[in-house]
Amino acid sequence: MGKCIGILTAGGDSPGLNAAIRGVGKAAQTSYGMNVIGFYDGFRGLMENRTIALNAEDLSGILTLGGTILGTSRDKPHKMQIGNKVLDMTDVMIETYHKHHMDALVCMGGGGTQKNAFRLMEQGLNIITLPKTIDNDVAMTDVTFGFDTALGIATEAIDRLHSTAYSHHRIMVVEVMGHRTGWLTLGAGVAAGADVILIPEIPYDMEKVAEAIRQRRRYGKHFSIVAAAEGAMSKDEAKDLQKIVKMMEHAKDKDERSEAEEKLTKIQNRRVDHTLKISQQLEELTKLESRVTILGYVQRGGTPSAADRLLATKLGTACASFIEEKKFGVMVASKGDKVEAVPLKDVVGKRKSIPHDHPWIKSARSIGICLGD
Ligand code: F6P
């Protein structure tokens, strides 16, 4: 009898997930004679043993679909909400794995999923992961699938904002997804010719941003496009955050830790309307009218780009071959033209932020885009 493998998708959905499920599934069946099952809704479906057969006919016609046919959730195996309790359900998941006599479990997701998958690996399961997220912030891979599609959507949106900004002589502040890193904002901002780009990696000084806009006006440009990442923060906010991170690192007991966590939640809640605040501050400082556009979930929806379909298929099919070779405890990563199996322990707990000397940052600066610093 052939090997049996399971697939789940966890974390925020991302274009290219179905292409990846299809890539793993078809290669596993066609090239290696494996049986493939899917688990619904991420780690919750694994816990509840909610499965779907993924035979050839189930995998047909899904390449171009957005989202994930398996459904997803942000549930964590060791902290699962069960009624009004939060419980460690890892053992139940291990039971499901053995019930199906599985030889491997494929977990597709971003940074959080890599961590959760690693925990299951530590419990002795044969785990292999794929890196997906529109944020492109998973460590040890050049790129994640979903990013290219979202980049295209955000770029087109900023393109479209230009004509209305120009006609009304307004500042257009556009919020792009990315709560921890600014890949999407920087990429779309440079590609669409934003005048100001604000990303979490470079805390901003609002006066510098306002001066860049005033300067444009002096040169006869009466409109400006400001692309701001969800996680963009001012220099003061960055300092506050730094303090809390230190507090959390040095917390002596549970009480100190929960005090720090409470402070962090307060800061995060305060930040929900921060793009609106950027817009208001710029109106005050420049005396120009400003409007806000929040791109939100539009960036995660719809059909994947050709590049994402290719990447997801490349990683998915390589994943099947790694399973055949019994390479477990790894993430299937894209490195240049190659696909590599990177040990999960080298991926977890890290985030791929934009280095300050990244070519996109250098290019942005050299054509006069203001990065707020
Ligand atoms: O992880 C991708 C991402 O799109 C972030 O950019 C965003 O902040 C987050 O997901 C929001 O996702 P959700 O509301 O689904 O948890």
Average pLDDT level = 96
Tell me the helix content: 40-55%
The run of helices and strands is EHEHEHEEHEHEHEHEHEHHHEHEEH
Compute the number of strand runs: 13
Shape: globular
Could you list the spans in which at least 5 consecutive residues all have pLDDT below 50? none
Question: What name is given to the CATH topology of the largest domain?
Answer: Rossmann fold
Class of secondary structure makeup: alpha/beta
DSSP helical segment count: 13
Strand order of the largest sheet: 3-2-1-6-7-12-13
Query: Strand count, sense and closure of the main sheet?
Result: 7 strands, mixed
Q: For the record, what CATH class of the largest domain applies?
A: Alpha Beta
The CATH architecture category of the largest domain equals: 3-Layer(aba) Sandwich
Work out the count of structural domains: 2
Distance between the termini: 61 Å
User: Which ligands are bound?
Assistant: 6-O-phosphono-beta-D-fructofuranose
- How large is the radius of gyration? 22 Å
Range of strand content:
15-25%
